[in-house]
Amino acid sequence: MKTPWHIWVVGLVTLLWHAGGAYDYLSAKLQPEAYLLAVPEDLRTPLAAYMAAMPIWATATWALGVWGAVLGSLLILFRSRLAVPAFAVALFGLIATSAYTYLLAPSSPMGAAPSLFFTTLIVLVLVFALVYARRQVAAGHLR
Fold first, then answer.
1. Checking phi first, is residue 117 left (phi over 0); if not, alpha (psi -120 to 50) or beta?
2. pTM of the model as a whole
């Protein structure tokens, strides 16, 4: 069976999207100078304190969300049905991290409005990827 063109488009576009999340995760955790210079000077110390105060479980669920999504996109490109559980793990990670961010964490120094907008966008992309992968498994395009 020939691979439909949309597998490549969805796999590549979602991989690029999720790579942005991976970059943000790594930058937040490793805090390279270029990343810190992009943050306004008056927010650097509060942001570093906010990140340092994040409990290990929230960091772990953030990692699950980010790396599960990247893996899911790669698995779509490899035409593997394992993309479905990878995206499901990513969605779990996103929900758990969002619960921490919006219900338990102290207020982010970056503000809530941009964060809520991007979280909503990430949820929509991730749900799309999960539903898409499930449909492609059902259609026999992911094996």
1. alpha
2. 0.89
